[in-house]
Amino acid sequence: MVFLNQATYLQGKIHHMQRALLLFTCLLSGLYAAHAQVASHLPFKADSRQPYAANPATHLQFDGYLGEKLQFVTQHSINAQDVASLVAPFKERNESSLWQTEFWGKWMLSAVKAYAYDTTNTALLHTMQQAVTGILATQTADGYIGNYAPGKHLQGWDVWGRKYTLLGLVYYYDLTGDKKALAGAERLLDYTLTEIGPGKANIVLTGNFRGMPSSSILEPVMLLYERTGNKNYLAFAQYIVTQWETPEGPQLISKALQNVPVAQRFTTATPEEWWTWKNGAKAYEMMSCYDGLLKLYRFTGNKDYLNAVVQTVANIRQTEINIVGSGAAMECWYGGQSQQYFPSMHTMETCVTITWMKLCYELYRITGNPQLLDDIETTAYNNLPGSLSPSGRFSKYSSLQGFRDLDEFQCNMHINCCMANGPRGYTLLPDVAVMQQQQNIYLNLYNAAHAQLQLPGNHQLQLQLTTGYPADGDVAITLQPDAPVNAAINLRIPAWSAHTQVAVNGKPVTDSITPGRYFTLQQTWKKGDVITLHVDMRIKTQVHHTPQGDFAAFTRGPVVLARDSRFSSYPIDAAITSTGSNNDTAEQAPAARPGAWLYFTRYNKTGSGENPVNIDIPLVDFSSAGNNWDVKSRYRVWIPVEYNVSGIPAEH
Predict the structure, then answer these.
(1) Residue 612: what pLDDT?
(2) Residue ranges of the Non-reducing end beta-L-arabinofuranosidase-like GH127 catalytic domain (predicted)?
């Protein structure tokens, strides 16, 4: 009866949305007419938005593994970018189908975050200033910034490119306060409103993939509404989500509330339809729309918007995201979690990886659900570094087996979509690591770091995280408040940590600790107080049964392990006879091996003869597997398990 009532409720909500569509469109037309093209700006009060559950620390500096990665990416992927070449396409308005104009905005997003992380990088700030000056110089008198020919506006990736230009300008404005950047963004959006909306072009019929790329402009629309108070922008945002629910639209709200899997929301596209408007399973663009929907939720409080994102993220996690924290094949959802044991073409697009991380982060900020942090951590220690080459270039696709290689440049340029997007995964992590809400402090990532926080009462608190995590499971958190302060320190307990130990100033905490939740320590903290944390770093075996046979994979903490042909004289595709116990009885420290960040061995039996061979299988972290980017270096995550028809353990 509960399920029947829920289904009836959802059907009623969807029916109500459909009935309201025509009336709402008419109201929007009136709202557009009632305001000048640039409305008077209305500043917002703090209580006019749904509050965030947590906000990033005032400042955070990584050390250790993530610090090294972020520094490397900043130097080789962000600082090294030829920005003039990213501006150049905007000067030539002859495009009708390609996506050159996304690259400038993607680079700007990562550059802004990289500079905010390290404000000593003055050369990067100067490059950003040049990039903004260059892009604004291409703006036409009517406000357009883009490279599409006058008769080709709204086709292909035109609106998608405008989205990234808007995001780049808004992020730069937030960093510098440069009002020219904000004005340029407003002019571009105001021009877009003259082309799309009631009585004009239907946004879900523009571009490709059921209008999802175009309608993901919702995110910068809401950012501009937040910064300007222009009611036209809020009206446009509401118009977008209303068009989603039309028969032509992607129905991102109603299908989510009905819990329709993301890969099954529309008929599977034929090969001829795959890259066209008819394909409604494009992963990256769909998640981008939900990112914008969360920002609209904050101003409307419409629970359907939030629930649609919550349901979709849960469905993506359950049906699509694989063991290393990414998903999709041929850039689309395909029920990939159950298919990850087998080779698939063009899996784990880096743009999908980055957007999954960002969507999880934005949803966490609203809900405070630590499961989303487990999602981010899995990606951050596996597929994100796995897609980064030694040159600093991100690959377009990654695989759970095979070899690593770099993909082609795009749009007759020196870059592709994933090269431009990849750095954003690393520049996101400082915001995730330590967060707070008033006196509640959330320790979310345990990489070595130094964080500064501003507490109520004008108190300052510094945190020092000393650890080799995830190479080891020991974390020491030293607190340095400017005066004794009462605060709640919330430690994220990873879902994979079956046995976790916590102590304060050397005294073990005896309260129950639950994996997958926060463990809270509330007290008055003094300078020099130390919290120690130990998480479970035993190697664990995951076995999955499929109609084609069983497969096993090994994990250690948040890190997925893989076979790599460089470290094994035994064929990496050979089946293992037994998977051993699910958990090792003792933790194993990583060994040093050139070419591997983390190296372990795992005892197993292999071979189908009368006397199976006892071997120690070499295993390396997924990001190190195949990281010489040589086709001769093969790796594999999921290892076939030999079928035992008798069921008698192989040891007997």
Answers:
(1) 66
(2) 94-426
Task: Compute CA 530 distance to the chain's CA centroid, rounded to the nearest angstrom.
Answer: 32
- Write the DSSP symbol of residue 205: G
Quick check: 201 and 193 in contact, CB under 8 A? no
Q: Where are the alpha helices (DSSP H) in 411-565?
A: 417-421, 423-433
Q: Summarize pLDDT for 327-344 with one digit per residue, the tens.
A: 999 999 999 999 999 999
Three-state SS annotation for 245-272? CCCCCCCCCHHHHCCCCHHHCCCCCCCC
Report pLDDT for 604. Answer: 74
Query: Could you give the CA distance from residue 77 to residue 126 in angstroms, rounded to a whole number?
Result: 16
pLDDT at 47: 53
* Dist CA 197 CA 175 (whole Å): 31
- pLDDT by 10-residue block (mean), the chain, 652 residues: 34 44 42 34 56 92 97 97 96 95 97 97 98 98 97 97 98 97 98 97 97 98 97 98 97 98 94 94 98 97 97 98 98 96 94 98 97 98 97 95 89 90 97 96 98 94 98 97 97 97 97 97 98 96 91 96 91 78 72 92 69 80 94 93 74 48
Q: What is the CATH number of domain 2-435?
A: 1.50.10.20
Q: Give me the residues paired with residue 534 across strands.
A: 474, 501
pLDDT at 579: 62
Tell me the CA distances in angstroms from 632 to 103, 345, 402, 404, 562, one per residue in order: 32, 19, 9, 10, 16
Decide if 600 contacts 591 (C-beta within 8 A).
Answer: yes
Give me the pLDDT at residue 650, please.
Answer: 58
Alpha-helix runs per DSSP H in 546-639: none
Report the pLDDT value the prediction gives residue 570, as an integer from 0 to 100: 82
| Helices of type H across 301-415 | 303-319, 350-367, 371-381, 383-386
Cα distance between residue 605 and residue 614, in whole Å: 5
Query: 296-333 in b/e burial notation, b at 16+ Cβ within 10 A?
Result: bbbbbebebbbbbbbbbbebbbebbbbbbbbbbbbbbb
Is the separation of the CB atoms in 109 and 424 below 8 Å? yes
* Peptide bond before residue 470 is cis, with ω within 30 degrees of 0: yes
- Cα dist. 297→42, 91, 218, 243 in Å? 19, 36, 11, 16
The domain locations on the chain are 2-435, 436-534, 539-641
With respect to CATH, is domain 436-534 assigned 3.40.50.2000? no
132 φ, ψ (degrees, to nearest 5): -70, -45
Rounded CA-CA distance 213/75 in Å is 30
Give the Cβ contact number of residue 579 at 10 Å: 20
Tell me whether residue 195 is exposed, middle or buried, using C-beta atoms within 10 angstroms of its C-beta: 0 to 12, 13 to 18, 19 or more.
middle
Lookup result for tokens 């050159």: 100
Instruction: Please give the structure tokens belonging to residue 455.
Output: 């507490």
Cβ contact 128:115 at 8 Å: yes
Q: What is the dihedral angle through the alpha carbons of 396, 402, 403, 407, rounded to the nearest 10 degrees?
A: -20
CA-wise closest residue to 434 among 445, 424, 425: 445
Distance CA 419, CA 393 (A): 6
Q: How far is it, in rounded angstroms, from Cα 611 to Cα 46?
A: 71
